Prior knowledge:
Elements: E1 2-4, H1 10-16, E2 21-22, H2 25-30, H3 35-44, E3 52-56, E4 60-61, E5 64-65, E6 74-80, E7 87-94, H4 101-117, E8 122-127, H5 132-139, E9 143-153, E10 167-168, H6 174-184, H7 187-190, E11 203-207, E12 210-219, E13 224-230, H8 238-252, E14 257-262, H9 268-274, E15 278-289, H10 320-329
Parallel strand pairs: 7-8, 13-14
Antiparallel strand pairs: 1-3, 2-7, 3-6, 4-5, 6-7, 8-15, 9-14, 9-15, 10-11, 11-12, 12-13
Helix pairs in contact: 4-5
Amino acid sequence: MIRSFDWRDVRLVKALSEQGVCLDSETGLTRGTRSLRNALLDYLMPGTGAPTLVWRADAHNGGRKTTEHANGNTAFGQLHHRPGSEQARILLIAPKCSASPEGWLKVSAQLAAAAGERGAHHLLAEVAEDSAEFASLRAAGFATYARQSLWKLSGPARAAAAPALLRAATHADGFGVSTLYANVVPRLVQQVEPPPAHMGGGYVLTQGGEVIAYLDVRRGPLGVWVEPCLHPEAYDLSEAVLHTGLQLIAEQTPKPVYVCVRRYHDWLVEILERAGFESMGSQAVLVKRLTARVTEPILKPMPVVEGRAPRPIARINITGRDDERATAQR
C-alpha cells in the first residue's frame, strides 16, 4: 500500500531518513534533505515542504506477520517541485534500494504520478551509474540524458594568476546567457532543462558584447553550488574564469563550494584538480517524461435550448457555375 504522509508515519520517516539516498545533489549538498521536517511541513501546510509518499508491504506475508522497518517492508520518497515548474526532482528515497527493492519500484512510480498531477513534464533524478538505485530507476522507466561529476572545495580558493573580468550577472544578461546555453549545451539536455531563468548570484564574462562564460551560483545554508557554462572560445580563459569566480564566492561566504561539471565541459576537470578540489564521484542524470492527468473531458455535450438540442447547421458551398445559373433564372 502506498499513500501520502500523515502523522502516523513520523516514526517511520525518522527511522529511515538516515538510510536514504539523495537524488537531488544540489539540494542535498547546499540545504540538506531534512526529510521529517519537509514531510511535516507539507502535511501541515501543503506547498511549503516536500510531498512525501509512504509505502508499506502487506501486513501479512505468506501467513506470517512482517516486522515494520525490517526486511524491506517499508519505504518512503519525497519530491522537490516548485509550483508552476515543468521540472520535478526526486529528493530522496529511503531506505537504500538494496534494503527495499520492491519499495523503490513502488515509490519511484508513484512519485512520477504525483509529479504529473502537480503539472510537471519531467521527473529528474541524479544517481551513481554503478549503483543498484540506477538499475531500479531504469526499470521504472527513467532514461539517462546527461552525465556529470561533482567536485568539492573545503579550503581557501587559490588566487588566479591573471584574473578574468567577471562581473555579477544582471537581468539584462538573460538573453546573452540563453544564447550561450543554446550554443553550448547539447540539444537532448535542452529538451529537459531550460536555460537559467534567475541571474541573481551568478557571474558572467563578456567579449565583444556577447556572453562567453557564465557561472550559475546558488547558495544554501550548508554550501555553494556552481554550474559553469563556457563557450569553446573561452577555453584559454577557463582557468582564470574559475579561479576568479571562486575568489568572488569566497569573499562572500566561508562555506564549502561544490562544482558540477557536465560531460560536455570535461576540460574543466584538470583545472579543478589544480585548484585543490576533491572529486566526489560521477553521476548519471536521469529523466522520466510525464503526462499531466486531464481532469475535464475534452469534448463537452452541446447545450440544450428549451429542452431540445440544437441541430447542426449545414454549410452550402456555391460554385461559380451555380452563380451563373442563379443569375439566368432571375
